[in-house]
Amino acid sequence: MTVVGPFGxxxxxxxxxxxxxxxxxxxxxxxxxATKSDVPFITEAAQHLVLAGGKRFRPLLVMLAAQxxxxxxxxxxxxxxxxxxxxxxxxxxxxxxxxxDVRRGVDSANTRWGNSIAVLTGDFLFARASHTLAxxxxxxxxxxxxxxxxxxxxxxxxxxGPTDGRDxxxxxxxxxxxxxxxxxxxxxxxxxxxxxxxxxxxxxxTQYGERLGVAFQLADDVLDIASDSHESGKTPGTDLREGIPxxxxxxxxxxxxxxxxxxxxxxxxxxxxxxxxxxxxxEVLRRLRVHPALEQARRDTVRYAEEARAMLAPLPDGYAxxxxxxxxxxxxxxxx
Length: 336
Hints:
By secondary structure, this protein is mainly α. Helix content is 74%, strand content 3%. Strand 1 (2-4) and strand 2 (9-11) form a beta hairpin. The chain starts with a strand and ends with a helix.
């Protein structure tokens, strides 16, 4: 048994381990190659987050999904590079929007070079992803473009907020389906599709990825409140400080509106106040960490992870399926 990939995923078969490790190494090389430019400064900026590491969650899913066909098919590694480049590009843009200082344990690009360079570097990565994608055929381009549309739509809906009468929690879960679930679903879809797996397998893995992606982001929401910076790779309460409505805060607001408990109303007022003040920010984090809203968000994470696990039922048993099941468990464990 060897531990690979994010969250300490254990692979219990030597052949699968070799395929995954070889594939991820090839993806890493592909990422470095795709982020090179004739302009040294662009290379430095584009490789900033590549070299910072990361879980490579999406490329791992590509490699595991490819096990249901031919994992050595020529489109598998390039498709994994495409989804990771797209993900990295969104991180550059997200950090500008969130005014984040830290990403993956290093200074965010916007902190180091300013917002304009960070946005343009994200655009550069999108361009490089499109260049690689073009070699994978028109169907791959269509799938990626639809996912990218969903991703951007999710970001816009998050920024705009729910319409009048819409439940904020339902709105938020729809946002996550677009922002995160779409690209994770494409990771699974590309891996299966590029490997030549049956269409039914491609569909099953796509639906699995959609649900796992939402669970993954919900676990991040929990970590934003519950973790320290060493564990999460970014400053705790970053989303909270920037007023981004994560699930624990949405559950807190719902509880305050439904029951009107003074302590909940007071905490909502603190959340809505000036959280650039470090003492106030620390107090809100402390109180949220012991509030039932955080546990409710954990339960939602478990629910989506269990839905993802259930989607795998039609797939043939084997080490690849076991690894995908274990990822569901690992996401839940990550949320505590």
